[in-house]
Specification:
Elements lengths: L2 H13 L3 H16 L7 E5 L6 H5 L3 E6 L2 H10 L4 E4 L12 E7 L15 E8 L2 E4 L2 E2 L1
Parallel strand pairs: 1-2, 1-4, 2-3, 4-5
Antiparallel strand pairs: 5-6, 6-7
GO molecular function, one term: S-adenosylmethionine-dependent methyltransferase activity
Pfam families: Methyltransf_11 (PF08241)
Keywords: Methyltransferase, Transferase
Length: 139
């Protein structure tokens, strides 16, 4: 793991216990907006954080990916049966085209970086800095 990735993971590990209190409402609204673009039954939620999107994406299969073990522990507390993966969004250990939709909400600093998720899903929904990228088209 490189220095930057370690620092990001450490930051979110420390924030995990209060994340929902600070950002839960805002993140839930983003998930609700993203639902309009979610297609298929296999969803990759990169940067799932505390698992706020799990209930909203149900009954689809969702793989929750995050770089922070602290965040994934909170996601497990929210849904003990969730499938979770501790991984870097830029180095996902997944088979290509193994999901129908990939979500990356408040993950990438640059939306162009989210295009890397297209290797794993036909449809990409990403949000950062108030801008959306859906299937390669910025909105």
């Amino acid at each position: 793991m490189n220095y930057y990735v370690e620092r990001v993971a450490e930051y979110y590990d420390k924030l995990a216990n209060i994340y929902d209190e600070l950002y839960g409402q805002e993140q839930t609204v983003k998930y609700l907006k993203a639902l309009a673009y979610v297609k298929g039954s296999r969803i990759l939620d990169v940067g799932c954080g505390t698992g706020l999107g799990l209930g909203l994406l149900s009954p689809r299969y969702v793989l929750c990916v995050d770089i922070s073990l602290g965040m994934l522990r909170r996601a497990t507390a929210r849904n003990p049966d969730a499938d979770l993966l501790l991984a870097d969004a830029y180095l996902l250990p997944l088979r290509q085209k193994s999901f129908d939709t990939a979500l990356a909400i408040t993950v990438f600093e640059r939306l162009d970086d989210a295009r890397a998720l297209a290797d794993f899903a036909e449809v990409v929904v990403a949000e950062t800095l108030g801008r959306w990228l859906v299937s390669g088209a910025k909105i």
